[in-house]
Amino acid sequence: MAMGVDVTIRGAGIFGLSIAWVLLRKGATVRVVDPHGPGAGSSGGIVGALAPHVPEAWNAKKAFQLDSLLMAEAFWTGVAATGGSDPGYLRSGRLQPLADARAVELARERAVGAAALWQGRAVWEVVEAVDPDWHPLSPTGLHVRDTLTARLHPGQACAALVAAISARGGTVVGEAGDEGAVIHATGAAGLQVLNTAFGRTVGTGVKGQAALLRLDRRAAPQLFCDGVHVVPHGDGTVAVGSTSERDFDDPAQVDGQLDAVIAKARAAVPALRDAEVIRRWAGVRPRARSRAPLLGPWPGRPGHFIANGGFKIGFGMAPKVAHVMAELVLDGKDAVPEGFRTDEALG
Ligand SMILES: Cc1cc2nc3c(=O)[nH]c(=O)nc-3n(C[C@H](O)[C@H](O)[C@H](O)COP(=O)(O)OP(=O)(O)OC[C@H]3O[C@@H](n4cnc5c(N)ncnc54)[C@H](O)[C@@H]3O)c2cc1C
Q1: What is the pLDDT of residues 125-164, one digit of tens each?
Q2: Which of 135, 239, 318, 341 is 20 to 30 A removed from 299 (C-alpha atoms)?
Q3: DSSP H stretches of helix in the chain
Q4: Beta pairing, strands 237-241 & 228-232
């Protein structure tokens, strides 16, 4: 048996790799095990919107996500500096068109909410469109602009984490036995395992499809219009997504539902009209019953832990999830908020 592994992490998606990175920074020795390789699950995608919840009706999930979004810049800068590989992070901000007077009024109320809740570290404001080629069509001529939203490139982010983990002496392998504490960060497949183990529906997979278009808007703000995320990446591409499918036969198949998403994006954003689609992608998001992350010890299995349920915002949640899990496993410090806890969901 190999000597000296403090923590084995099963699953090399964004949760498993981010936890490995923080554990290594805290001085632990770590091995990540994934038979399908890094980014083989829903983390190997193309969208990568790190977008906040609306600043109102505050709760533990929104506070946790705000912390994570505010941690992201330092987190990804550290990953890039250590491994020498670019995760494609940029705090680009985001624009959302306002359809009518009611939406404008609501957006202004939320601006007041953001001023109180976002600790002066980002703004949410109503602005006029200034770039007719990029800004989505808006019946009122107005948009919400927030300065908290960021982006990363999911596939690049996984590769950057693997590089940083390796540079710190961690390993990412296809097969190995358990050694030390074990963290199960196994995404939608892991939720199925929990469903069987606990004899109830702990969570399910929700399929999503997204597309990548060739268009260089690398410094432009992200857009959210007509339910579609439009995310410019640093490599001269723009991602549009996503579908949300509870019932599906083939998790990897792309179909006409994605054409509808692309058509909506083209209708809303003039610059996308003639942009070539260069990639279509589908993945299965891990959705816990609560729709929140599922974090903590595996009840009845000493030394085993669960980090799952990233659902639609796994990339946005990853920095804070990684810190909370690393503290729990290494130091026994339990800062998992209510609504995320395995003892509530599985106890
Ligand atoms: C179309 C689409 C668009 C999305 N857009 C965004 C977005 O814009 N912003 C955002 O924040 N999130 C987004 N998400 C959600 C995000 O991708 C997920 O929340 C996130 O990838 C979940 O990460 P994970 O590490 O928990 O799971 P996964 O990435 O699925 O990783 C789980 C890993 O576990 C491995 N595994 C499974 N079983 C085992 C086992 N027994 N042993 C070892 N390894 C195992 C798998 O091979 C896999 O690599 C999107 C998802 C989809 C599908």
Answers
A1: 999 987 888 988 899 999 999 999 999 999 999 999 999 9
A2: 318
A3: 14-25, 60-83, 101-117, 154-167, 187-198, 256-268, 314-326, 342-346
A4: antiparallel
Question: For residue 3, is pLDDT > 80?
Answer: no
* Mutate-to-test residue for ligand 1 from 161, 171, 186, 258, highest number of ligand atoms within 8 A of CB: 186
Residue 263 identity (one-letter amino acid): A
Prior bond to 242 cis, omega within 30? Answer: yes
Reading phi first (left if > 0) and then psi (alpha if -120 to 50, else beta), residue 168 is in: alpha
Average pLDDT over residues 322-328: 98
SS3 assignment, position 55: coil
Instruction: Tally the residues of the chain.
Output: 347
How far is the CA of 92 from the CAs of 121, 223, 305, 314, 338, in angstroms? 14, 10, 34, 19, 31
Q: Which amino acid is at 161?
A: L
Tell how far the Cα of 154 is from the centroid of ligand 1, in angstroms: 10
pLDDT tens track for 177-201: 999 999 999 999 999 999 999 999 9
Sign of the four-CA dihedral 103, 116, 220, 213: negative
208 C-beta closer than 6 A to ligand 1? yes
